[in-house]
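Propose amino acids for all 137 sites.
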């Protein structure tokens, strides 16, 4: 059975065209990692992350519960050297493209897919001048 994070990653890989994102290459279903050892500087991480408690009342007395999982997505830009503005702009554009790819997506096995923020959340600039954004689905 596929996890919500894996489903979101598949949607991102199928929808975002520039740059091309491929699961296991520059799109990972795991926690954010430092660049190196198979993890490029510009990449996307998708992490299954909690969610709301199950709701049994939506299914009546059937014993079935309605689950609302949450997925956190991180986008890291490629470093732009000392010109942090260039790295910031390209990274933000990628974060917005990834966000648009999953918001309101029709995903098999899910009732709805909604991004919980209006814009990607800026997290930090790293020592290599790459930038990180995040959003929740």
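Proposal:
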């Amino acid at each position: 059975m596929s996890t919500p994070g894996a489903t979101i990653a598949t949607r991102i890989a199928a929808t975002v065209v520039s740059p091309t994102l491929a699961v296991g290459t520059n799109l990972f279903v795991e926690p954010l990692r430092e660049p190196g050892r198979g993890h490029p500087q510009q990449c996307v991480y998708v992490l299954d992350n909690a969610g709301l408690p199950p709701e049994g009342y939506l299914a009546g007395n059937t014993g079935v519960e309605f689950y609302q999982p949450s997925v956190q997505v991180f986008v890291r830009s490629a470093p732009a050297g000392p010109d942090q503005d260039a790295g910031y702009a390209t990274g933000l554009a990628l974060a917005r493209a990834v966000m648009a790819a999953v918001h309101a997506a029709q995903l098999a096995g899910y009732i709805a897919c909604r991004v919980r923020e209006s814009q990607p959340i800026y997290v930090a600039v790293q020592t290599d001048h790459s930038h990180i954004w995040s959003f929740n689905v």
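The CA atoms of residues 74 and 134 lie 4 Å apart. The longest helix spans residues 84-102.
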